[in-house]
């Protein structure tokens, strides 16, 4: 059974009198452990697709089944609960909380898991170690390099053992060497821990590293086999 299944999904934004069809009947399935890259020109619907998959938004039409549950018509509250429990997000601009240190940023998604303070702390430390930040636990984001900030982003995305991790241009703000390190880190979680991963990227070299490559053009999706 796929972990993620979209069935003829449409997303239409109403702009005054005009309708913008950001997604045109998209269907796709992602299995547990898949690594999928998404490429496409600006405005083609990539972020709209990720926002739907990440339960930040709902389809205008069509069905989204996440891990066996139809989430296309949930209330805002139910949708945000699903999002906090089942989804990991990685952003181009990291979206860390500057007032919180590394450990506390990683702990944010754990807040919803009902762990004790000690369990939450231990889990965050373990994640920080897994992304190579064991010497930066008490640092705040402004004291970290871009690559280190994105390592925090990766650890935070993994904290709630998500069904799928969605990364929107995760290396877009990094130099090529640092971007490569972050990409390797993400790929290692897919390879070694079976983390299901979808990466939006402009970089064909990044896209080619995925076993599945998806292209979006004008809200439609085509797929080819990658490496
Ligand atoms: N909140 C919104 N309101 C209206 N139109 C939007 C909104 N978000 C995206 N769009 C439009 O939907 C289309 C797809 O946008 P987006 O998913 O952001 O593309 P991409 O991430 O591939 O650049 C674009 O035409 C964009 O202008
Ligand atoms: Mg986008």
Task: Explain how this protein is built.
It is a single chain. With 227 residues, the chain is α/β, with parallel strands linked by helices. It has one domain (33-52, 82-225): Rossmann fold (3-Layer(aba) Sandwich). It has 7 helices and 10 strands. The chain has helices at residues 46-53, 76-86, 102-107, 117-130, 146-158, 176-193, 204-207, and strands spanning 4-15, 18-30, 35-39, 61-66, 69-70, 87-91, 164-168, 197-200, 212-217, 220-225. The strands form 2 sheets. It has a 6-stranded mixed sheet with strand order 6-7-8-3-9-10, with helices on both faces. Strand 1 and strand 2 form a beta hairpin. Helix 5 runs parallel beside helix 6. The longest helix has 18 residues, at 176-193. The chain is globular, with a radius of gyration of 17 Å. The model has no long low-confidence stretch (mean pLDDT 95). The structure holds adenosine-5'-diphosphate and magnesium ion (MG). Residues 46-47 line the site of magnesium ion (MG).
């Amino acid at each position: 059974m796929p972990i993620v299944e979209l069935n003829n999904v449409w997303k239409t934004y109403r702009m005054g009198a005009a309708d913008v069809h950001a997604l045109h009947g998209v269907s796709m399935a992602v299995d547990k452990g898949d690594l999928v890259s998404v490429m496409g020109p600006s405005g083609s619907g990539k972020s709209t697709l990720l926002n739907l998959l990440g339960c930040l938004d709902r389809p205008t039409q069509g069905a989204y089944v996440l891990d066996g549950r139809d989430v296309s018509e949930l209330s805002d509250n139910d949708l945000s609960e699903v999002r906090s429990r089942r989804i990991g997000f990685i952003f181009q601009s990291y979206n860390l909380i500057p007032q919180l240190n590394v450990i506390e940023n990683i702990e944010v998604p754990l807040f919803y898991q009902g762990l004790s303070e000690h369990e939450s702390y231990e889990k965050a430390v373990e994640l920080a170690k897994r992304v190579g930040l064991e010497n930066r636990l008490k640092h705040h984001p402004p004291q970290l390099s871009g690559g280190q900030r994105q390592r925090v982003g990766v650890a935070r995305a993994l904290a709630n053992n998500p069904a799928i991790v969605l990364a929107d241009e995760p290396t877009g703000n990094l130099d090529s060497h640092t971007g490569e390190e972050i990409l390797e880190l993400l790929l290692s979680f897919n390879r070694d821990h079976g983390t299901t991963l979808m990466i939006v990227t402009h970089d064909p070299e990044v896209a080619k590293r995925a076993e599945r490559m998806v292209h979006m053009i004008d809200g439609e999706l085509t797929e080819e086999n990658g490496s």
